[in-house]
Structures are given as C-alpha cells and as structure tokens.
Amino acid sequence: MWAQRTIRLRERPRRFHLVGAEVLEALPELEQVSVGILHLLIRHTSASLALSENASPEVRRDFESWFSQAVPEGAPYWTHTLEGDDDMPAHIKAALLGPSLTLPISDGGLALGTWQGIYLCEHRDRGGPRSLVATAWGE
Amino acid sequence: MWAQRTIRLRERPRRFHLVGAEVLEALPELEQVSVGILHLLIRHTSASLALSENASPEVRRDFESWFSQAVPEGAPYWTHTLEGDDDMPAHIKAALLGPSLTLPISDGGLALGTWQGIYLCEHRDRGGPRSLVATAWGE
Amino acid sequence: MWAQRTIRLRERPRRFHLVGAEVLEALPELEQVSVGILHLLIRHTSASLALSENASPEVRRDFESWFSQAVPEGAPYWTHTLEGDDDMPAHIKAALLGPSLTLPISDGGLALGTWQGIYLCEHRDRGGPRSLVATAWGE
Predict the structure, then answer these.
(1) What is the DSSP letter of B24?
(2) Cα distance between residue B112 and residue B110, in whole Å
(3) Residues A40-87: pLDDT tens digits?
(4) Alpha carbon distance, N-terminus to C-terminus of chain A
C-alpha cells in the first residue's frame, strides 16, 4: 500500500508550532495500515520539521530562544543578506533540524512516545504557507 | 517483508553510547533481508540517536563536551526549568541530533561505513531506560 | 520495486557542494517509479548530506562560515586530536546535519521544493572521495 499527497499548512509566525493533529487529519488512509511508515518532507529551505515535547508551550518558546541566539541575525560572517536578516539564519536552522520526519505506523496510528509531537519550525518572520509531501507505505 | 518491534535499552548515564550490537541482537530477522531498510525511532524527547565514529571513546567524550557547552544549563533564556536544569538543554540536543535513524540493509546486514556506529545520545542526568521502535522492510 | 547501489563522489574541498545532478544521474531506475522513496546514506563520519538552497553560492559559503565558528578547531575541550584539528569538529558537524536523506519520489522524479538541492557537506580539509549507498523503493 502506497499513499502520497501534498499538505498545505497555513502561514504561521516565526516560532515552533505543534501541527501533528492537522497533518494526521489530512491522512485518513493511515487507519488502514497495520505496520508501515509515514514520511513527511517540508518543501522549503527556511522551515523545518522536528519531533519534540508536545505538552508545554514554554518548551517551544525556549526552542525559539536557543536557535535565535545560536544562529544570530546580523553576524559579520553572513554574505547572503539580500533576502533579509532572518533569511540566512533560517537556512542554517532548517538544516540543523532537518526537512523531514520518518515515523513508524503501528495498528493504524503513529507509534510515537507519549510526549512526542510534530513541530513545524518556522524560521522566517513571514514565511508564508508551507507545503509538505506526505508519503505513507506499509501493509 | 515487514517486521516491527520495541527494543528497551537499559538506563545509561548522560553521555554518548555505542548501542549497535545490542540493537542488532534484537532483530534476528534482518539476516533474511537481501535489500531493505531499518528504521529506528527513539520514543523520547530528551535522548536521541546518531551515527558516528565507532572506535575511539574520546570521540564520544568530545560529543558530550561540545553539546554541553553549545546548549548550556542555566542560561538566562530558559523558561521551562521545572523539570531540572538538564531538561530543556536535553530537548534541544535531542532535536539537533534527531530521534531516528534510517539505515540501508544489504545482504542480511546494515550497509554502514567501516567507522560508523549507532549512538544512543543520553542527554539527561537520569533518563531512565529508553524505548526504541524498530521497523524493517525489504525483500 | 527495490534498487540499491553505491555511488562514489570524487574528492572535494572542505565546503558545501551541490551534488543532486550527479546523484540522480547514477540512478536511472527512478524514472520508472510513480510513487516511492529514495534513501541516501553517506558512509562516513566526517561528511554529511543536507537539503538546502540550490541557487546562491553565498548560501553555501555562509554554511561553511557558521559551522566553522559554531564547532571551532582548537577548542580546549577536544581530546580526540590525533587525526588533525579538523577531525573532531568534522564528526560533530556531520552528526548535526546527519548522514542520510530520505526523499519522496513522484512520477519518476524527486518531489522536492523548487529551491531545494542536495548538499554534500565536506567537513574535512582532505576528506578524499566519499561513498553513498542509494536505496530506492516504490511502485
């Protein structure tokens, strides 16, 4: 069994957002899979996907704080500055966290840990809507 | 061919540990696969999996040193401090390294490079046992 | 459908390089796949693969700048220094960016975003040729 579709996530502000419920709602076919894999790719180079703590909004705020000080805007070594101060740091942050998630499916649902949630990591001030390719396969 | 199982790794101290032999021992079915993929997901948000140098214990010590200075405990920007000083840095480190590995299977074994080993990256002082979901598919 | 092969990338200088065209040229079977996945693993611990901006050479230069200041050579905490000043930082950088890419195939090609390109991230001064295992499956 194979399924593939594009999921459009509405524009969100620069920050880390829980989007797992929204992603799963777009993939009703997962319920038919007893064992398989869901792969998600974000088709952008200034936003990323991650799996992290799904309970506390403070955790997501602290992600923003750490990444913004570790990859600072306005650093003297940036040469690609044409598209705004937030652009080049966004590329680095996106590469550090990665553009995709590969997740096990078990008995019709994702086999994640209790505290794991899917983050959309929006690294641009105005990134616009974001597009994912979701691919699922299994039996 | 599909196989999926949960692997429990005993509690280990905060540090980077080679766990490839232990993981493979739990997956005897890989020997039947001529070409395929093994996917490992750690079901936690304060520990991660990585692939790195499998020979020198100094490399794993230096991983701990770098990550602990790059994501410092007690930094002024942390607001999620309820679960201990090592908790929020652990979430960031886990996201930087990622919760999963996707590895090619060839002729009944993992097709890794000579120097590549599977790391359990334990970012908490007392993380407890860790649970992996291992999913393998192929022909 | 399964295909698996080794791809050898010629030696390149320390830096971030676009290698997507070279990788795809080695995988003519992708054209037969209507929906599937391509998995690439670099079989080394001091080089990595990433997906990032495919247009501006400045972006790739800024990647080198950021990673080289974030993971500095000659830092006092390195103990694994036997193989050269660039060795231990290369292991860290490689783990941060990751050794593999998992990419959706759609209608005979990779379903990437317009601006996404495959980077070979060479973290050693003289890393030598690099070997990838490419595995594709689908229908």
Answers:
(1) H
(2) 6
(3) 999 999 999 999 999 999 999 999 999 999 999 999 999 999 999 999
(4) 6
For residue C69, how many other CB atoms are within 10 A of its CB? Answer: 11
Structure tokens at B12: 């280990």
Q: Which residues of C touch B56 (CB under 8 A)?
A: 80
| Distance separating alpha carbons of residues A12 and A60, to the nearest angstrom | 14
**Residue where the block lists tokens 């009944």:** B108
- Residue B65 in 3-state DSSP? helix
- Chain C residues near residue B97 by CB distance under 8 angstroms: 95-96
Residue C26 contacts residue C10 (beta carbons within 8 Å): no
Amino acid identity of residue A13, one-letter, is P
Answer whether C135's CB lies under 8 Å from C39's CB: yes
Digit-coded pLDDT (tens) for B38-93? 999 999 999 999 999 999 999 999 999 999 999 999 999 999 999 999 999 999 99
Write out the E strands in chain C. Answer: 2-9, 15-18, 35-42, 47-53, 100-106, 109-110, 116-122, 130-138
The residues in A 54-113 lying below 8 A from B, measured between CB atoms, are 56, 58-59, 61-63, 65-66, 69-70, 96-98, 101-104, 106, 111-113
